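Lay summary. Proteins are chains of building blocks that fold into shapes, and those shapes determine what they do. In this project we predict the shape from the chain. Here is one chain we studied, written as its sequence of building blocks.
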Amino acid sequence: MDIQKIDGFAFLKMVRQGAVRLNENRKVINDLNVFPIPDGDTGDNMYMTLSAGRDGGNRSVTADLGATAKAISEGMLLGARGNSGVILSRIFAGIAKGLTGKQTADVPAFAVAMHSGVESAYGAVSVPVEGTILTVLKDSVSAARAENGDDFEAYFAALVAEMDASLKRTPELLPVLKEAGVVDSGGAGMLCIARGMLDALQGRGDEASEDLQPQAQPAHAAPNLNLFTEDSVLEFGYCTEFLLRLQRAKVGDPESFDETLIRDWLNSVGESVVCFKDGSIVKVHVHTKTPGEILNHCQQWGEFLTIKVENMTLQHQETTIQNNFETPAAETDEPLIQAQRQLYGVVTVASGEGLVQTFREAGADAVIEGGQTMNPSAQSFVEAFKGLNAETILVFPNNSNIIMTAQQAASLYTESRVVVLPSKDIGAGYVAIASLDRSCKDAEQVIAAAKETIASVQTGLVTTATRDTVMDGVQVHAGDYVAITRGDIVADDPDRQQLAMALCRKMDFAAHEVAVVFSGAEVPTAEAEALLQQLQTQYPRTEMMLTAGGQPVYDYIIVLC
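And here is the predicted shape, written in a compact code that computers can read:
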């Protein structure tokens, strides 16, 4: 087919067919795991992220290409899971940016948008690594753009061909891939999506033939304006929120501007103030009876990007009516909104009944269910943030593959300052949360102390090998148990208990004062207790605690501090 222009309907069909291809290959992509353990989830993360974008497009599709691309992008930003999902969402955010204002696009215009997607993806990663999805996308977009064709099918055919070639080159660029004998999983997922989009252009696939219509969005009740009458008294004031872009003409250098100038003034005239700077944007939340004065005063430093002012008296009465007359909601793991604004709120991620309970007891206000093989979405973080009425929200992802998702959620939430701490494993997150000093009013001091604690904790993991390989100098056999610490495989053994003891020796167990052992869902209680007794006999000077964590994937999580 000779397709020289696409509109919003055509683009959504392409995305939907990309999701079909990705779904068909998600297990294969999951198995492209550098570590020979059952924690590969790139295919799942990318599929769920793309599905969120597809659903966003389904709800808002129109012939307007720019509007539909934006709806798809917004769905993906909230639905992003794992590092691969976040990068994928940023790719489509860049594409949407490049298509802004366009009813349709020809190949040259779409190629420019794809280049914008490359730039957005690279910008999302603090230290871009070649040999990943970034390289695969960059190489293919450059090659297809060089074709200078005017037919979309030819453009995507060239895109897919170079993407496939670039994917095969990834092991030469990234030694860890070559050692594991795999290609980059994120790049493989991107190739599946591109092939699906080509399918749609060629009229192949179930999704490509569907008649697309916008799906109705859930109706949200309009505020009851009668709750604030002519005789009402403005008791609670207005919840006032805005994003202020600092202007060079007003403040000189926005990067060096000290936002405490704004924060101190807001504290003198309002309540429940949250004010922090992200680049040249200042995020503000304040309760006041005179929002006009707040806005007029703050405009001396910049111009507003967004403004939201809500009558809290109306909100309070509406909430009271709902609480008095609605059927109580069933209990969930999500926190109730705290009535009084707190200094700090703590959000973390864990899986397994025992682990979740342990984190709650340690001081977590919200525990998002998830972890290895089931990374939570950015939306799940945002919902957790909404339940915490806190000046500063501290987030402990406890997994390196969740940190970017948490950061993306933090960038989308404006009602509190959200700080994502670099906890890359359960042990670091648990000890850091348990050590938090919530009475300290200096947030920077609390954050610095948490980072220091995270860096001091050592965590060891015991899990099962999924394939034969040699990694980090260790001969790994499929079906054996493997021990991991500080990102390295340090031992292999068919006996789980012997391996756990070997892991403790590798971690220099005797040099630590405190040890916490979390047993996994597949470990019998008697076996875990036997391991604890063996450790107590061999390391009598170390204080130890055994908890039935119930976590999947890892039979033992051993935390030393």
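What the prediction tells us: Residues 342-456 form a domain with the Rossmann fold fold (CATH 3.40.50.510).
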